[in-house]
Amino acid sequence: MNPAFSVIFFTVVSGTGYGLLFLLGIMLAFDPSSLGRNEALLALGVGATFVVAGLLSSTLHLGQPQRAWRALSQWRSSWLSREGVASLASFVPIFALAWCLWRSADEALLRGLGALLAVLAIITVACTARIYTCLKTIPAWHNAYVLPGYLLLGALGGACWSWLIGEWIGGARAQPTLIVTLAIASSALKFAYWRFIDTSPPTSTPESATGLGRFGRVRSVEAPHTEENYLTQEMGFVLARKHAGRLRAICLGLIGAIPVLLAMAMLFSPLAANAIFACIAALSVTAGLFVERWLFFAEAKHVVMLYYGGAQTQRA
Amino acid sequence: MTMLPPPTRKKLGLVIDLDICVGCHACAVACKEWNDGGEFGPLPDENPYGAEPLGVWFNRVHTYEIEPKEENKPAMTVHFPRSCLHCETPDCVTVCPTGASYKRAEDGIVLVDEDKCIGCKLCSWACPYGAREYSEVRGVMQKCTLCVDRIYNESFDEVDRQPACVMACPTRARHFGDLGDADSTVSNLVAERGGYDLMPEIGYQPVNKYLPPRQRRDGCGSAPTKTAQDEKVDFSTSPLLRWMDKVLSR
What we know:
Chain A is an all-alpha fold. Chain A has helices spanning 5-30, 37-58, 79-89, 91-102, 107-133, 146-169, 176-199, 206-210, 230-235, 244-268, 274-298, 310-313; one strand at 216-222. Chain A has two domains: 1-134, no CATH class; 159-316, no CATH class. Chain B is built from eight helices and eleven strands. In chain B, strands 10-1-11 form a three-stranded mixed β-sheet. A two-stranded antiparallel sheet of chain B has the order 2-3. Chain B has a two-stranded antiparallel sheet with strand order 4-5. In chain B, strand 2 (45-46) and strand 3 (54-55) form a beta hairpin. Chain B is elongated. Chains A and B meet through helix 3, helix 8, strand 1 and helix 9 of A and strand 3, strand 4, strand 5, helix 2 and helix 3 of B.
């Protein structure tokens, strides 16, 4: 699949934003007093900014962005629509929390709104993932690895930014165990996902696509058009696969090894260096998520390409 | 509304005979011509007279070669028109966030309401058959309409109320009708010839059916050829031919 930058930016940035909002919501729900007012407000502001930036970016790839509001109407059947609704709904606790934190409202109210924010953050990211996992036409997306991947990677990105915000405000209440756990779990899941897409047999073949398998092996000898068309441009993206191996290693380094090392180093370092560690971790994981998401699109093969010559669609 | 309607009684669709399609692309061209000016047009091209033209077509004709399973069987060349199959349970309808993509309850035709489409392209991702093509020029998704603006058009003579591709086919490889009616001509064709679904494993239950080509006769294309034998014409039977052979052989 053609990796459109606006969609990659959207899923990474809003996923990270919701990860951050999820962790904030959890902390508020369980122990509101553990968070300073400024730290909570800053985390809320950064999270909401990421989410808004992501949502705005997602409208950039639309052909008719002025009609984007219509996308809220079909929540009964469409995961894209559900995601839009869930995402809008999450702004209710975001604005309410901002108001309550500002006015130093009652603890019970903060707990309730925090819990609501955490739940809506999970629902929204899960809806984003379901947009992709519901497509039977793309086996690399239609599997059980994708949804947990979106949730874990969102949480990892959020945890790193949460760490950075804590250091920035001077809260100094970092969570090295959380970051180490999330980084290792995310890396393991991505590793398993790549193994899965590399080894799973194709669900469809040129023979099933044409129904001509009863006669023998089907080979395309002439395409319907001499130039590209929408299908070959959108679904026939092959550029990335050549470098997939190297990019996967880079991704695991950025989302796995680097944050783990930095979080461990934090335990043994003087306090002054922690802000720098947190900054590097947040940037590293965010960059790693861009690589991961780019691969997620670029490596995914659409069954329609079977009509354009089966050999291209076999894994290289 | 992008919820699917309850199973439709009437299932309008096409039956495509791969045995006699000659791959002339007349269906694709007639489709482009009709729909460019029809109710769902235009079908604009980008850079139409340039080096790399790009544009929306609702119908595409592929050509495949089939390497036979058994060694002494002849290879086959099959021309393969590909367009929307107006599936009974297609995800291209349900994934649409706006209600632009819909399946008609009255006859099962799958259409795009171009005034509601936001051009998110998700429906084209959901289609395994490549039936939907996005128009960069118009910013909306476009697809085969089964010539809904022809088949119900009362200003046409009855015989002309058929999709443009069916009207244009010079070998009558394309048939239009109600596949929900077990007694219709198209349903009989499917029953007689073993009409089948494309990619049944995806589970969209296509309405359009394809009729398989017949197995080619053994020995075609393998040496020694008949042509070589034809060279040795027996002139001895007719005095006239014998005389001509003599004269022309001088």
